[in-house]
Amino acid sequence: MKIKGAKRWVVLVVLSLFAGEMVYTPYIRFNYYDQMAIAFTEYKPIVDAANVNEFIGTTGMIVGFVSMIMYIVGGLLADKFRERNLILLGGVTLAAGAAWFGLLPDANQILAAHAVMALGVGFMWSAYLKTTRKLGNAHEQGRMFSTSEFIRGIIGTALGFMGVALLNQGILPSGEMDPSIIGPQLSLLLFINAGMFLVLSFAAFMLIPKNLVGNEDADDAEQVPFSFRFMLDAAKLPAVWFGVGILFCGYSLTAAASGYLGTYTVQVLGVDPTAASSFAIVRNYIIAAVSTLLIGFVALFFKSEIKTLGIYMGVTAAVVALLMLFSGNTGIGIAITFVFAFFYTGMRGLYFATLSEMRVPVHLTGIAIGVMSFLGYTPDVFFSKIAGIWLDSYGTAGFTYIWAYAIACGVLGVVVAFFAYRYAKKKQAEVDGAAAVPADAAA
Q1: Residue 177 dihedral angles phi and psi, to the nearest 5°
Q2: 223 Cβ partners below 8 Å, 6+ apart?
Q3: What secondary structure, in 3-state letters, does 273-314 show?
Q4: What pLDDT digit, counting tens, does each position of 294-338 carry?
Q5: Which fold would CATH assign to domain 5-208+227-431?
Q6: What DSSP state is assigned to residue 1?
Q7: Which residues contact 155 (CB under 8 A, 6 or more apart)?
């Protein structure tokens, strides 16, 4: 059954709200890094203060490692089982993990709770992206994915400022944080998110048909029966490996920026933690909402999602270099972080739209997304851990390593996008040539 008319936009909104929750809660350190450090060291003696950056990095590593494995599993599941069932399973699992984390138990249990949340992400991720692709036709993929990212930005903004409001109650008149208040408020924030996971996943389950058929032109591809051979078929496609390279480079920029711009503004630019959290929400959600919506139109202008991503990665690398150059100027530094955010968040709106541009068959969408995600999101596995060690070992000098890594990935991303674009043009020429054959024969 296809979803047509206004209903497909309702489904897209609910799915995107759920996906916004999904990338907010397991990665809550992106917005409240310094508050988490207080909760883990002063509210409860969960870890030693000398190692708190490494521990927070380890939570990210756990999410990344489990998610990486689950991307492949989830991709296979998305091609074999109904999307709505996987989305519901993911929501229930995410809710359980968020509630467990909200108890602020010991260090090992906090890591386990992050692993549970990562399981939930893996269950629903490919199903969410495959459903989003099915909602649009072959010419609407950039629009669908960028609109979804825009909605994710809206829910992220609302959640982010709700979190700031809750955690601000622990800010003393002197500007210091009161651990006895920060801890319980962080718990409350996580419990609220657990409840929202349940509500949104059940709503998506009710709205999505049992047998969802896509709106792309190649509808016959939707009827191909599932086979485990799909994994081998997807692995043979150069498009999948170009997609991996683009996602790896782009997400490396996101991992560096989302994970460490907040604490960078505190430790280097001299901004207080409350303002830093507010700036992080502006970057990761408000600017993200605008930039992910606009990038769809930018891609229309350039007539290519891949070319657009290559341009964005090149500009982002240059912006990071400027950030390093103006690290001693608070005002200019903060302004540059906002420009940085416009480009690194905007790219999220197009990563998986590249599958359609490179002519990946619809019936291989789930496993193609799984392979891309499995390898492309590997910065989640190693980068937060390494960055945490850099900061614990070298103090603020550790940011130099973080930004140098980001610049290198931006430059590499431009190179990968260049070759991916050439491949996409070749595939399009093949399609155009095949379409012209019947007409020539008839003549």
Answers
A1: -95, 140
A2: none
A3: HHHHHHHHHHHHHHHHHHHHHHHHHHHHHHCCHHHHHHHHHH
A4: 887 888 889 899 999 999 999 999 999 999 999 889 999 999 999
A5: Growth Hormone; Chain: A; (1.20.1250)
A6: -
A7: 16, 17, 20, 21, 24
Find, among 197, 270, 282, 251, the residue nearest to 384 by Cα.
Answer: 251
Do the beta carbons of residue 340 and residue 256 sit within 8 Å? no
Q: What whole-number distance in Å separates Cα of residue 365 and Cα of residue 246?
A: 17
Q: Write down the domain spans for the chain.
A: 5-208+227-431
Q: How far apart are CA 376 and CA 245, in angstroms?
A: 7
Round to whole Å and give the CA distance between 26 and 259.
12
Helices 83-102, 52-80: crossing angle, 10 deg rounding: 160
Q: Which three-class secondary structure state does DSSP give residue 171?
A: strand
DSSP 106-128: -HHHHHHHHHHHHHHHHHHHHHH
Residue 373 burial (10 A CB sphere; 0-12, 13-18, 19+): buried
CB 66 within 8 A of CB 208: no
**pLDDT (0 to 100) of residue 220:** 42
* Collapsed DSSP state (helix, strand, coil) of residue 443: coil
